[in-house]
Design goal:
Elements (H helix, E strand, L loop, with lengths): L2 H18 L7 H16 L9 H4 L4 H11 L10 H18 L8 H20 L30 H21 L1 H12 L2
Length: 193
């Protein structure tokens, strides 16, 4: 999947998670940092790809991207597995605890969960592509949905661009529309009227 589909998928899954498990006490700062963390989590597994948006946006990202590509075993390998996701989540938690004194009004645990939701959304979305995802590494099998490869999505082609991406946006619009009152109440309570 492309970067923008992963961005949309990450925020959609976060929206679904919050709709299912409403959070009653959260500061505006936490909400904003959590959304940012969610978006980073959504593209994080593609650090194994030298051309990934994650690297493209850094000044010498191409160099580090090629290095990471070799180190992580090439595209759709370690970072696209449960084992890799657990390692990334562990490192992210360590980093968040380390920088938490800089963000006194931010609930680190909620930010971390939003990051993990983004991370999982990435693996889920890539599972629908032809390449599949090696969920259970070190078991070297790539899983895909549907199991028949020919029925899966080709990254960046019309099914992704015309069905999946707009579909995710529609889910977001529906989530906002059905929770509009809650969202307005949340913003009023925190930003003031
Ligand atoms: Zn990927």
């Amino acid at each position: 999947m492309t970067g923008r589909t992963h961005d949309a998928a990450a925020i959609t899954l976060l929206g679904v998670a919050v709709a299912l498990y409403p959070i009653h006490s959260i500061t505006l700062a936490t909400a904003l940092v959590a959304i940012l963390a969610n978006q980073i989590g959504g593209i994080m597994p593609d650090i194994d790809q030298p051309t990934a948006p994650f690297w493209r946006n850094l000044p010498i990202g191409g160099f580090f991207g090629r290095f990471a590509d070799k180190l992580l075993g090439g595209h759709r390998f370690l970072t696209h597995s449960l084992l890799g996701a657990a390692a990334i989540a562990y490192l992210a938690h360590w980093l968040l605890v380390f920088i938490s004194p800089l963000m006194p009004h931010v609930d680190i645990d909620l930010v971390w969960w939003a990051f993990i939701v983004g991370l999982i959304s990435h693996l889920l979305m890539d599972t629908f592509t032809k390449e599949g995802v090696p969920w259970l590494l070190p078991v070297p099998i790539k899983f895909g949905l549907p199991p028949i490869k020919a029925l899966r999505v080709t990254t960046g082609k019309f099914v992704e661009n015309l069905i999946i991406f707009p579909g995710l946006i529609l889910i977001d619009v529906w989530l906002v529309a059905t929770h509009y009152h809650d969202i307005v109440t949340f913003i009023h309570a925190r930003v003031g009227s």
